[in-house]
């Protein structure tokens, strides 16, 4: 007997479906914990690529990513040439932690408070990091905590290594000039929604 096939109502590609699912996860997390999640949506591919572009995959040592969420910047780092085994992902949200472990099984995924990153990672790194890439919502914290976070990152890295942070704001997420570090910003990434830019900090 002829049995009609059911039409596939979801015609999205697997990648588009995953992006939509991640956006739903992010929105749910933001509604539940807005000060911790910070952004309503995960980083767009243009912003993720701009952040990864500031990492030199030829430099030895682990690459620390802080606040990876569902992993768009992680994917961009891997596409950039950073081996998954070199990635150390620090994420506070336990649901995102489980998702990251499934998506990046060769990376080291650590659940914890990123504002205590030096304590979290002090005994977990085999060598000084070659870069720190952060997606933290820094503007939810006062300036002294932001500066302290930057100093923690410096304590885990090679002396010339970059600490990379994106922002949607016009002003820098950590003061542009400060004692003991230098900084520069990329051009605005207008194709990201909302437009964003990337700040790169280095120990002076």
Note down, in words, how this protein is organized:
Helices cover 34% and strands 17% of the residues. By secondary structure, it is an alpha/beta fold. It has one domain: Vaccinia Virus protein VP39 (Rossmann fold, 3-Layer(aba) Sandwich), CATH 3.40.50.150. It has a seven-stranded mixed beta sheet with strand order 3-2-1-4-5-7-6, with helices on both faces. α4 (72-80) links the parallel β1 and β2 (87-91). The mean pLDDT is 88.
What number of domains?
A: 1
H/I helix tally: 7
How many whole angstroms does the radius of gyration measure? 18 Å
Tell me roughly what share of residues is in helical segments. 25-40%
Number of strands: 7
Q: Please mark out the parts with pLDDT under 50 across 5 or more consecutive residues, or reply none.
A: none
Strand content: 15-25%
What does the average pLDDT come to? 88
């Amino acid at each position: 007997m002829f049995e009609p096939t059911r039409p596939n109502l979801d015609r999205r590609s697997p990648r588009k479906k995953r992006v939509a699912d991640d956006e739903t996860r992010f929105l749910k997390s933001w509604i539940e914990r807005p000060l911790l999640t910070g952004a309503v949506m995960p980083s767009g591919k243009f912003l993720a690529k701009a952040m990864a572009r500031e990492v030199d995959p030829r430099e030895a040592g682990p690459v620390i990513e802080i606040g990876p969420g569902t992993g768009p910047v992680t994917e961009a780092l891997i596409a950039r040439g950073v081996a998954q085994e070199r990635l150390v992902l620090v994420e506070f949200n336990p649901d995102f932690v489980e998702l990251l472990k499934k998506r990046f099984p060769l990376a080291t995924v650590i659940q914890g408070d990123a504002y205590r990153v030096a304590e979290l990672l002090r005994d977990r790194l085999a060598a000084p990091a070659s870069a720190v890439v952060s997606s933290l919502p820094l503007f939810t914290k006062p300036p002294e905590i932001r500066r302290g976070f930057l100093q923690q990152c410096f304590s885990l890295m090679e002396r010339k290594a970059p600490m990379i942070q994106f922002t949607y704001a016009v002003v820098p997420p950590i003061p542009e000039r400060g004692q003991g570090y230098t900084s520069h910003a990329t051009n605005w990434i207008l194709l990201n929604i909302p437009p964003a830019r990337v700040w790169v900090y280095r120990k002076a």
